[in-house]
UniProtKB/TrEMBL annotation:
Domain CheB-type methylesterase: 9-188
Hydrolase is among the record's keywords: yes
A Pfam family it matches: CheB_methylest
Protein name as catalogued: protein-glutamate methylesterase
Length: 200
């Protein structure tokens, strides 16, 4: 099996932020299915969804993973081993004390929740101990936020555009900077497992 970090120290990771839009449900399924119940990193996700009505993301993914799955509540403290989803029509932000907050400030890149908003606030909280993952999508949301993760010293991962259901979002990131990894979904899943093992 290929080792992802043969030539440098393993980064200390405290959290993972993930952004997805069109095609994201299938992509996220590949990432979280099979993660062990011992997986301790928190996963914070913005999946672009319609602004009105309730989200089915929690019920869908609770049947796909052994992780705890929940929609974010205002001012809750980030917990390990939890898959968090942003609520419909609310930006998701991470405070410097690792509490999560919700905002109805104006849309960013035509999106609320916005991937950029999550990524940029998470950088302020975790800095170089953050992993950012950008998946399939039809907008440029997330590219600037992932670049901020990169310049803060965090680990950056972009889904291989040729595999993405909609390649606009991964390609927008690649036009801005060179991430640490450009990988198909199965390899991103394996990288998450390796990070968890090496940070245990």
């Amino acid at each position: 099996m290929t080792t992802f970090f043969p030539d440098r120290p393993i980064p200390q990771v405290d959290a993972v932020v993930i952004g997805a839009s069109a095609g994201g449900l299938q992509a996220l399924t590949v990432l979280v299915e099979g993660l062990s119940s011992r997986f301790r990193l928190p996963l914070l996700v913005v999946q672009h969804i319609p602004p009105h009505g309730s989200s089915c993301l929690v019920s869908v993914f609770q049947n796909k993973t052994k992780l705890r799955v929940k929609e974010v509540d205002e001012k809750e403290l980030v917990s390990p081993g939890t898959l968090y989803f942003a609520a419909p029509d609310y930006h998701l932000l991470v405070e410097e004390d690792y509490c999560l907050s919700l905002s109805q400030c104006e849309a960013v890149n035509f999106s609320r929740p916005s991937i950029d908003v999550l990524f940029e606030s998470a950088v302020d909280a975790w800095g170089e101990r953050l992993v950012g993952i950008l998946l399939t999508g039809a907008s440029e949301d997330g590219a600037a936020g992932l670049e901020k993760v990169h310049w803060a010293g965090g680990l950056t991962i972009v889904q291989e555009p040729t595999e993405a259901q909609v390649a606009t979002m991964p390609r927008a990131a690649l036009q801005r900077f060179t991430p640490d990894f450009i990988l198909p979904l199965r390899e991103i899943h394996r990288l998450l497992c390796e990070l968890e093992c090496r940070n245990a």
